[in-house]
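We were asked to recover a plausible sequence for a given structure. The inputs and outputs are reproduced exactly as logged, with field labels preserved.

PROBLEM: sequence recovery
POSITIONS: 313
GIVEN STRUCTURE:
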């Protein structure tokens, strides 16, 4: 087949996009119009950090914690976010308000950007901020929430902390994406990745908790320190439950009474089967269910939430 070699006078995008609103280069645009340069280091080298917060029934959940983490991580990567934290909060508000969404998945990204001469020196790139609000989506759908997620323990090792600091939320996701394909090949939902010592770390966009004799434990190393994980610590204090950050082995998981995973994309989600092993009773456990209930209840409390100002739209 011979290609028609000429520059398109106007670019027609053949892809489909979900409804939503993005912020890019100082403008609010529909998702289909939000573009990133193919010369952006964020695209070419995964040289970026990002954060995800959700809006539930018109209120941001723990926005301050997400923005603090985002700004700290940008600093760790020597990225300069070209807006203040207050301005970024406003940008996120405006994306949600313009989208009209009451339950939204809101992502903010700072990329290294492009350098005018395509130099190999990251210091010459102009850092960029982008954000978008689309409909809320969960790692676990309603059926998976009822029956519990099924996971595999991947043979893949999660990128080690001495290669890249996992506390920095990042797009080094190919170990997780390959793990997802491994999970799908075994008719499972999600992968869990281990570290080089064989301890469990995290999965494709979530942290892990195990429960044994009413005591909770979660991996303390090689992970993104999730805001939902942090929220579970606070809920445990409120509920009088013990929770420990420590090395969690595959045996700990297989022998647990209950297990669950946590993410902004879904909250607290039960994990009921790992490889061929049923965890506990094989159903979402009582502590998991209680924590899930109080987690969603707290979405209307003013201490942890703030209302979206829809009047700007
Ligand atoms: C690798 C990884 N671990 C853990 C999490 C959970 O973090 P959070 O609770 O802040 O959403 C995420 C979220 O996307 C993630 O990408």
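RECOVERED SEQUENCE:
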């Amino acid at each position: 087949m011979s290609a028609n070699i000429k520059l398109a006078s106007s670019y027609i995008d053949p892809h489909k996009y979900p409804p939503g609103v993005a912020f890019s280069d100082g403008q609010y645009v529909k998702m289909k119009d939000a573009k990133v340069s193919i010369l952006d280091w964020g695209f070419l080298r995964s040289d970026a950090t990002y954060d995800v917060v959700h809006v539930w029934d018109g209120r941001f959940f723990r926005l301050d914690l997400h923005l603090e983490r985002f700004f700290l991580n940008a600093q760790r990567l020597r990225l300069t976010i070209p807006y203040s934290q207050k301005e970024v909060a406003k940008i996120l508000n405006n994306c949600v308000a313009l989208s009209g969404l009451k339950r939204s998945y809101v992502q903010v990204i700072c990329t290294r950007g492009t350098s005018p001469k395509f130099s190999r020196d990251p210091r010459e790139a102009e850092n960029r901020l982008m954000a978008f609000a689309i409909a809320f989506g969960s790692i676990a759908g309603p059926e998976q929430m009822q029956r519990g997620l099924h996971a595999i323990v991947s043979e893949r090792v999660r990128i080690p902390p001495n290669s890249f600091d996992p506390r920095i939320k990042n797009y080094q996701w190919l170990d997780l994406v390959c793990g997802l394909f491994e999970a799908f090949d075994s008719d499972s939902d999600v992968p869990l990745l281990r570290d080089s010592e064989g301890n469990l770390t995290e999965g494709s966009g979530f942290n892990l908790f195990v429960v044994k004799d009413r005591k909770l434990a979660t991996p303390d190393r090689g992970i993104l320190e999730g805001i939902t994980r942090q929220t579970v610590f606070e809920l445990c204090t409120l509920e009088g439950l013990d929770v420990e950050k420590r090395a969690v082995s595959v045996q700990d998981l297989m022998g647990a009474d209950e297990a669950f995973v946590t993410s902004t994309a879904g909250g607290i989600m039960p994990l009921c089967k790992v490889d061929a092993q049923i965890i506990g009773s094989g159903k979402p456990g009582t502590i998991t269910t209680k924590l899930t209930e109080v987690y969603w209840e707290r979405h209307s409390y003013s201490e942890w939430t703030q209302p979206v100002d829809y009047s700007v739209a």
